[in-house]
UniProtKB/TrEMBL annotation:
Keywords for this protein: Membrane, Transmembrane, Transmembrane helix
GO MF, any single term: formate transmembrane transporter activity
PANTHER family: FORMATE TRANSPORTER-RELATED, INNER MEMBRANE PROTEIN YFDC
Superkingdom of origin: Bacteria
InterPro entries: Aquaporin-like, For/NO2_transpt
Entry-linked Pfam families: Form_Nir_trans (PF01226)
Keyword Repeat on entry: no
Entry's Gene Ontology cellular component terms: plasma membrane
The UniProt record lists the keyword Transmembrane: yes
Location(s) in or outside the cell: Membrane
Name recorded for this polypeptide: Formate/nitrite transporter family protein
Amino acid sequence: MLAHTSIFEPRILDAFFDLSRRTVEGTFGKTLVRGIFAGWLIALMAWLLPATKGSRAHIVVVMPYVVALGQFAHIIAGSVECAFLVQSGRASLTQYAFDFFLPTLLGNILGGTTLVALLNYGQVAAEIDDHRE
């Protein structure tokens, strides 16, 4: 809806387009790798939150900031950016689906589940080794 209103000046809309355009510009592989790192970082954030008593706000601010700073692909934030491009007619639904959604979703799933699996294994590895002996 923002793409079709006069709420923002043209220079602000141009800035939105510039920021959003990178979501559909990468190759499938590049976006997949960016998605893996984003999934890893967000899973790490979820893993760290229970351990941080008074610093939760810091974790919630810093980790997504690192995702944005690294220009990693996250399915939720990036979908908002892509929706702006699609609504403005500067990207098609096909571009959204195949250039962003699919590689980003796969990357986020791979990154997040791999980190969680490794952390879970790390917690019980000693018990597994003791049980084998």
